[in-house]
Fold this sequence. Notes:
Blueprint: H1 5-11, H2 37-44, H3 59-72, E1 76-80, H4 83-92, E2 100-104, H5 109-121, E3 125-129, H6 135-139, E4 146-152, H7 164-173, E5 178-181, H8 186-189, E6 199-203, E7 217-221, H9 235-238, H10 249-253, H11 257-270, H12 276-287, H13 289-309, E8 313-317, H14 327-333, E9 341-346, H15 349-358, E10 364-365, E11 375-377, H16 389-394, E12 402-405, H17 411-425
Parallel strand pairs: 2-3, 2-4, 4-5, 5-6, 10-11
Antiparallel strand pairs: 1-7, 6-7, 8-9, 9-12, 11-12
Helix pairs in contact: 1-3, 3-12, 13-17, 15-17
The structure holds pyridoxal-5'-phosphate.
Amino acid sequence: MSTTVDTKCLHAGYVPGNGEARQLPIYQSTTWKYSTSDDMGKLFDLEASGYFYTRLQNPTNDAVAAKICELEGGYAAMLTSSGQAANFFAVFNICEAGDHFITSSSIYGGTYNLFGVTMKKMGIECTFVDQNLPYEELCKFIKPNTKCIFGETITNPTVDILDFDKFSKLAHDHGIPLIVDNTFATPVNCNPLKLGADIVTHSTTKYIDGHASSVGGAIVDSGNFDWLAHKEKFPGLTTPDDSYHGIIYAERFGKAAYITKATSQLMRDLGSIQAPQNAYYVQIGLESLAVRMERHVKNATKIAEYLASDDRIAWVKYPGLKTDSAHELMLKYMPKGSCGVLCFGVKGGREASIKFMDSLKLSTIATHVADCKTLLLHPASHTHRQMSEEQLKEAGVAPDLIRFSVGLEDPDDIIADIKQALDIALA
Length: 427
Ligand SMILES: *Cc1c(COP(=O)(O)O)cnc(C)c1O
């Protein structure tokens, strides 16, 4: 029934029956009751579907995952405790010790660390690549043990846009899936699954929640990748799982294989479930997501245009600006606009940028982004602090780069705040 994204934000995932709660109930219960031992035994063997323990599944979480799934045009979805857990699960579900994968080097600092440091300790190797390289160059990074390709729809913090045609071709020409973190664009402005991605991840902490209330993540699978056609590459999905009496996920669950494995194996063992209470906050956030994204884009465009016109600003990057290097890809893949995040540098370099930040009154310094309130931070000192100068350069993070996440305030108030801070910083 729900057709457009605006309507889906409100109605997808949970449709109450006659006399049932209008708002999604919070199932604040760890466990479910069964009448017979056999009834419950079948759940443990994945022979019957049903709830038994919240670490595996919970109805509140499932309703929210179903909404995100519908918004993304996916086949199956799950929530995780954080965006970090979502990206880890998304890759670890198909990569094991001895495997390799490729990621754009322009990604969120936390993901960079997860892939480059922590997963390396697990024996999974990752190659960071410049996403602007031509197709032929990118092909050279593929190895026989490469299992997936990862990128962000809109890169955090450099707000570049993934060339979906190039990256989905790269993945599919080599028989591997493309995983895309769609946190910044949200399903309102971009649907990676319709552009050739196979799996989408989210930090729901950002725009989807939108009100800085709960850390969470999500994974959505298109169900399109044919695991059995590349049987030898993905043994976790195509050979028997001893922990479930020899189930072969891809044969037993078809299009739901990837999410079923991630839930029944990874979530069971690693336990990074989203709290049902947090899933409820995510549900509330999703209801207004389409309205908020439209305003974030409108406000950010106005502020980017102002910044581009103030000669105290060294440079500004926002895909919505006609002169921006990502503008054409934006028009192609997200015609409604990118999001509210932009970045810029203040003339006078790193020192002036920091003084400017400290002089703002309305916009606040916070380790957060993509929120209803205007927030900013300095990646080289904050989110990307652990990176070397070389790695910062590789990730495209200039030393003076300020990541500015435009909120829903009156844009003229935000501009007035920026102007007074520039007056102080450059006095
Ligand atoms: C914040 C963020 C993450 C990590 O999400 P958490 O919910 O903080 O764990 C991953 N990817 C992107 C693009 C992000 O902005």
